[in-house]
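Work Package 3 (structural annotation) set out to generate three-dimensional models for the target panel prioritized at the project kickoff. During this period the team completed the workflow that converts sequence records into discrete structure tokens, so that structures can be stored uniformly alongside our sequence database. As a representative example, we reproduce one entry of 229 residues exactly as it appears in the project archive.
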Amino acid sequence: MHVMGLDLPIPDHTHLSRRVRTLAVQIPRQERTEPIHVVVDSTGLKVFGEGEWKVRQHGAGKRRTWLKVHLAVDAHAKDVIGVEVTTPAWTDGEVFGDLVDQVDGVIEQIDADGAYDTREAYEVAAQHQATLVVPPRENAVAWDADHPRTQALAAIQEKGLSQWKKDTGYHHRSLAENAMYRLKQLFGEGVDSRLFDSQVNEVQAQIAAMNRMTYLGMPVSVRVGVAVS
């Protein structure tokens, strides 16, 4: 920093090792005045520590080798407004309630994949007075006559899955996958911390940095031509 002529504080190395588990990470979020369209998804991050050769020779150890990161993303602002870090033993549906509870503001709609096609997920959405848009699982059966899942099944049977996705705006869910991609492109496929609490803070720090970059500006894609078949 001295060579570059920058007067910036330098964190002690222990902030990134021993003391990281005690840090309080503040994830920046913009204030919202309109109802929020939330998209959720999860991904895995590798926990470094067991080398590929050791695993190949002796198998995976008892220590966890993956973390599961659950994200709630604003479909319009494209920033992360909810994050949970768990072991792979936790299913998406089990974390859904805590994830949605982190969203500040009025939720209009929540888009999720088939892993969230559970009664509990619909109940969480109902508690927030939000519409849950989830493709029913294969061979799904109707629930109560007025249940949103039953109505989704009827609409899919009448119009087809593709048209149902267009009508409900379900295509926005890909923005959650895009957020996962950006996270891994910026910070890699795994975490460096060895202790779980430190790993949670490491992921939250990554999300905080990614949100700051998102607020600086996002790329705008513009169609410049039409494909000719």
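The domain at 33-216 is CATH 3.30.420 (Nucleotidyltransferase; domain 5).
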